[in-house]
Amino acid sequence: MRVTVRAIDVHLEVPFAISRAVRTEKRLTLVELEEDGRIARGEASPDPFFGETTEGLEADVRDAVALLPEDPRDLEAVRARLDARFPHGGAAAAAIDILAHDRAAQEAGVPLRTLLGLEGREAPPTSFTIGIAEPDLMAERAAAAAAKGFTVLKVKLGHGGDDATTLRLIRERFHGTIRVDPNAAWTPREAPGRIEKIVPYDVEFVEQPTPPEDIDGLAYARERSPLPIVADEAAVRLADVDRLARACDGINVKLQKCGGLAEARAMIERAHELGLKVMLGCRAAETSVGIAAAAHLAPSVEWADLDGNLLIVDDPFVAVPVRNGRFVFSARPGLGALPRA
């Protein structure tokens, strides 16, 4: 068994702006385990919002490799050990969990979706994200996404700006499904009014309009919102699902946020039990390793926002390509990730 942990730099095709940050590049941590002629992979993509740094993640991943059991099939041991080491989840836990699932599926000789019991089920189309920019430029990028066959957009909104003008211009050039995401930029009292102004542009739902620590504020906004509300930054781990059930219509589950596939599956199951819909999301820059893990799980949810690898220009892997907004799965075992030629 040989383990390699390394940092890789990836670059966004265009500056990616949300309400709290602008990003042009990102340093990720990749972990690879080679045994019996197979290479299993995992990935950690840091998010400063959750206190993560590249250096910290790389150190945590190096330490956590020791948590992998000798038996690749023992995923229960992986989850228990990761929960003890990373009780709040996060990207380092996700990297080890993804690697463990890739390893287990490769050892079994089946694609990851088969190992997860999702073979033959269709995944929802992925959205393509339009970051904050001048409204005309956002409309141009929406038109470009439509030309590539995407039928769903996620449009980032912020503190200021004319949301109605932005969405009007986008609607003139994009006729598919639109979702909006202020990334917690609005107060509970202003959120309903801002949402009311965008209703004419046929928006499907609003993602995390208010600060994540204020569940009462999210519930306040939801009670007065003419559009469904989906929680993201507030929905980190399984324990969050029950407390959010009264405050939203759905949750955004991210492997890098919750700590991997095992926790994500538990969150999805509990959300569905409570009548909530689920979106599988990603961070603004991930390679095809991280995205493939979520894509294999995507047939179990209603919505997908898995374009982190599509936003970068130097993805070092190929795994689950997207055509016309839909995932195209291969028969390769595990994640199906291969180094890009």
What would the keywords be for this entry?
341 residues; alpha/beta; Enolase-like, domain 1; 8-stranded parallel beta sheet; 15 strands; 35% helix; globular
List the helices and strands and how they pair.
Elements: E1 2-18, E2 21-35, E3 38-44, H1 54-64, H2 75-85, H3 91-108, H4 112-115, E4 128-130, H5 135-147, E5 152-156, H6 163-173, E6 177-181, H7 191-198, E7 203-207, H8 215-224, E8 229-231, H9 238-244, E9 250-254, H10 255-258, H11 261-273, E10 277-281, H12 288-297, E11 303-304, E12 317-318, E13 322-323, E14 326-327, E15 338-339
Parallel strand pairs: 4-5, 5-6, 6-7, 7-8, 8-9, 9-10, 10-11
Antiparallel strand pairs: 1-2, 2-3, 12-15, 13-14
Description:
There is one protein chain. With 341 residues, the protein is α/β, with parallel strands linked by helices. The chain has two domains: 2-110, 2-Layer Sandwich (Enolase-like, domain 1); 115-339, Alpha-Beta Barrel (TIM Barrel), CATH 3.20.20. It is built from twelve helices and 15 strands. It has helices spanning 54-64, 75-85, 91-108, 112-115, 135-147, 163-173, 191-198, 215-224, 238-244, 255-258, 261-273, 288-297, and strands at residues 2-18, 21-35, 38-44, 128-130, 152-156, 177-181, 203-207, 229-231, 250-254, 277-281, 303-304, 317-318, 322-323, 326-327, 338-339. The protein has an eight-stranded parallel beta sheet. It has a three-stranded antiparallel beta sheet with strand order 1-2-3. The protein has a two-stranded antiparallel sheet with strand order 12-15. Strand 10 (277-281), helix 12 and strand 11 form a beta-alpha-beta unit. Helix 1 (54-64) packs across helix 3 and helix 9 (238-244) packs parallel to helix 11. The chain is globular, with a radius of gyration of 19 Å. The two termini are 25 Å apart. The mean pLDDT is 97.
